[in-house]
Amino acid sequence: MMMVPKYHVFVCTACKLKGEPHGFCYKKGGVEVLQKFVQEIDDRDLGSDCLITYTSCLGICKEGPCAVVYPEGIWYGKLDEDAVEEICEQHLEGGTPVEKYRV
After folding, report:
1. Tell me: the pLDDT tens digits for 79-94?
2. Where are the domains of the chain?
3. In DSSP terms, which residues pair with 76 in a beta bridge?
4. Which CATH architecture has domain 1-76?
5. Are 10 and 73 in contact (CB under 8 A)?
6. What is the pLDDT of residues 33-54, one digit of tens each?
């Protein structure tokens, strides 16, 4: 049976299909934000509840680096490693979206 995660987080890394970096989220640390999500999910033992996927452009470049959390469809912007820690603690562990990073 396929695992169905409680949350699916899409993180913009603004990379082309061939892996060539470009775009605002990449230049502003999107890859580091992605890596921090992966680390936090692992450190908090949330691997069975959370799936992390990196994406190309999510279309809100001025808010980047950005991510969206499903199933709620909560969009976050202007992310850094501290923001990721808060989102993992409050939203992914606690179930409460972090308003100050919402887009």
Report:
1. 999 999 999 999 999 9
2. 1-76
3. 67, 102
4. 3-Layer(aba) Sandwich (3.40)
5. no
6. 999 999 999 999 999 999 999 9
Instruction: Annotate the chain with DSSP letters as a single string.
Output: -----SEEEEEE--B-TT--B-SHHHHTTHHHHHHHHHHHHHHTT-TTTEEEEEES--S-GGG-S-EEEETTTEEE-S--HHHHHHIIIIIIITS---GGGB-
Q: For residue 98, what are its two tokens?
A: 């972090």
Output the pTM of the full model: 0.89
The CA distance from 25 to 66, in Å, is 7
